[in-house]
Amino acid sequence: MPRGLRVYESLPNVISFALPLPQAIVQEVAEKGPTKTYFHHYRTCNAYIDHISYTLVLAIKAEGYDALYIPASQSVSEDGYHGLFPHKAAAVLCGLGGIGMNDLLVTRRYGAGVRLGTVMTNMPVVQAEAVENPCNGCGVCVRACPSGALFGKKWEAADSVEAMIDVRLCSAYMKKTYQGIGRGAVCGICMAACPIGRT
């Protein structure tokens, strides 16, 4: 892992995995917007990712190495917009996909309809090759965003989140508009709009 992305110098390697959301749920969001069912699946998937990640940590420790996992969905910054480590960065480094114009990981098979897990470790791992970004810059996600928070910019390796999306505008819109679907706010419209991986 590049030194600038390391959170713990003693854990220089990263393992990344993606779990797809049910296609029926992604389609539901595309047709109706965020629903209570989507919110439930979103939260359940995050909890399952944490379970898988912790199980992987225990397996690595049993082999005599150290490891920790990054929570699937947790903000640790003062402003509440950033996690401990960007799951998307790990996923790109591990060859799972690329960053779309929606600032989400886009995989060739599932589009943007995935949730991500990340484990950091000192166990030697096979280095993955980055893959070609599946996002073709069609802009469907940008046009679908009801908050206008997406800037319509193609991702470059050096881009920050702020170069692609107004995270404050996105968050404020979600909290105002979709608070009723669950304790917390999710949207997913830009995720569901992505045409990549549609069957």
Summarize the structure in short.
This protein is an alpha+beta fold and 199 residues long.
Outline type = globular
Q: Catalogue the unreliable spans.
A: none
Instruction: State the helical fraction.
Output: 25-40%
Total count of strands? 5
Mean pLDDT: 89
What's the helix-strand series? EHHEHEEEHHH
First and last CA, distance:
33 Å
Going across the major beta sheet, what is the strand order?
1-5-2
Largest sheet entry: 3 strands, antiparallel
Radius of gyration: 17 Å
| SS element count, helices | 6
* SS content category: alpha+beta
What fraction of the residues are assigned to beta strands by DSSP?
5-15%
Looking at the chains present, what oligomeric state does this protein adopt? single chain
Description of the structure:
Helices cover 33% and strands 12% of the residues. The chain has 199 residues and is of the alpha+beta class. The strands form 2 sheets. A 3-stranded antiparallel β-sheet has the order 1-5-2, sandwiched between helices. The radius of gyration is 17 Å and the shape is globular.
List the helices and strands and how they pair.
Blueprint (H helix, E strand, L loop, with lengths): L12 E8 L2 H10 L3 H27 L4 E4 L16 H7 L4 E2 L5 E2 L7 E8 L18 H5 L22 H12 L10 H5 L6
Antiparallel strand pairs: 1-5, 2-5, 3-4
Note the main attributes of this structure.
single chain, 199 residues, alpha+beta, three-stranded antiparallel beta sheet, two-stranded antiparallel ribbon, 6 helices, 5 strands
